[in-house]
Each structure stands twice: as structure tokens, then as C-alpha cells.
């Protein structure tokens, strides 16, 4: 008798799996019919929770991976959830698998950041200087620049981190989606070397551009101005009532 598969976290009744992006849903059609809806529901649950409860999101992604691990989109979802939960070794393994399956070098910046999370900034810099990284699209190149600068800081090379971010993209006049993250990273690097006045200017730019709440530029700026935030107030501001985590209960195997 075959052992039962490990149970995953309980799935909320309101998740049907049809909420999944159509292209991802289509990619699941190669799975056994009994797994398609279950994998889809776990992926939706993981995506719903990844910003508010990364550990539970990771558990849902693991449940999807156990049943749909030969699907690249499933491995990518597992990688993102693992990364957000701080499981960098697992995230790196999933990213490498997704990259092998798809041939997509766009995973490289996240892979490099996982190397940083594992305390291996030199490996992050190796990825950043690889020929594959040189061929990334503009958005991924900016992400890699940010990761590489962070790796320099990890190694105590703080001035080098500032210089690494002094790239033409820093002066963009477009509404590129990556601009807030780049400006924030540059401001952070400037603060590390004591250039507070310049950092304040870049934090202001980042805060104005960050309409999606990807950074805490506004909070950092307020702190520089002497405003102290209460953690509970920040949590209440950023956690919508609909996103409050539910109690975990194992699903039926």
C-alpha cells in the first residue's frame, strides 16, 4: 500500500482555483485530472498570503509543488514563497529548477539575492557579472544592479555599493516600474556612508514614485525628519482585514 501524500494547509472554501491567471491554469492541464484543481487552489492561496503570511504561503506552495512539481509555474511560485519566507536555500533550488525548465535567465536577480541571504555575497556578484546577466531585459538588469550593490554592502564595500548604483537608469525621466526600488536602494547606500542630505532627496523621489508600496521610503524619510512610527500602527495600516490569516488546519490527504 502506497503511503498517503503529506497533507498541506487547509484551503479556504472561497478559493476555487479559477482565480489563477489563465496562462498558469492552462499550464496545469498536463497534470493528472485529480490534481489540477488542488494545485491551482494551493497556488491561489499562496499568492494571496505571500505578502501577509509568507510562511503559510510557502506551505501552500509546497503542497502545490508536491503534486505539480513538473510544471515551471509551480516551481516559480514555490521559489517566490520560499524567498519571501526567508528559506533561501529552498528558494534557490526552486529557482534553479524553474530556470532549467524554462531557459529564462530572468530568475538570475532573485537567485543572486538568495546567495546573499545564504551569506554568500561573492556568489551573488559572480551571477551579476555573468554573460547571462548582461543579456537581461532592462527591468531585470536594474534588479541585478540593486542586488549587486547589496552584496557589496554585505562585504563592507559601502562606497563601492554607492558607485555601483550610479548608473544612467538612476536619472530616468520615464515612469519605469523599477524606478522607486532603484532610487530607494541608492538612498539606502548613501545613508550607509553618511551622505544623509543626498539620501533624503532620493528617498523623497522614491516615496513619490512608489505607488504600489514596494518600499518603506515614506517611513524612512519620516524617520530622518524625526517622526517615530509605532509598529502596531504600521501593521494596522498595511494589513487589510480581508488578508488576516486564518488558522491552519491540515487538508484531507
How does this structure look, described?
The protein is an all-alpha fold. The protein has a domain at 8-103. It is built from 14 helices and no strands. The protein has helices at residues 22-27, 33-49, 54-68, 72-84, 88-102, 108-117, 121-128, 131-134, 138-154, 158-164, 179-192, 196-209, 217-224, 231-238. Helix 3 (54-68) packs antiparallel against helix 4 and helix 7 (121-128) packs antiparallel against helix 9 (138-154). The protein is globular and about 60 Å long. The two termini are 15 Å apart.
Q: Write down the overall geometry.
A: globular
Strand content: under 5%
How does the major sheet shape up? none
Task: Specify the structural class.
Answer: mainly alpha
Give helix % range. Answer: 55-70%
Please supply descriptive tags for the structure shown above.
14 helices, 253 residues, mainly alpha
Q: SSE layout and pairings?
A:
Layout lengths: L21 H6 L5 H17 L4 H15 L3 H13 L3 H15 L5 H10 L3 H8 L2 H4 L3 H17 L3 H7 L14 H14 L3 H14 L7 H8 L6 H8 L15
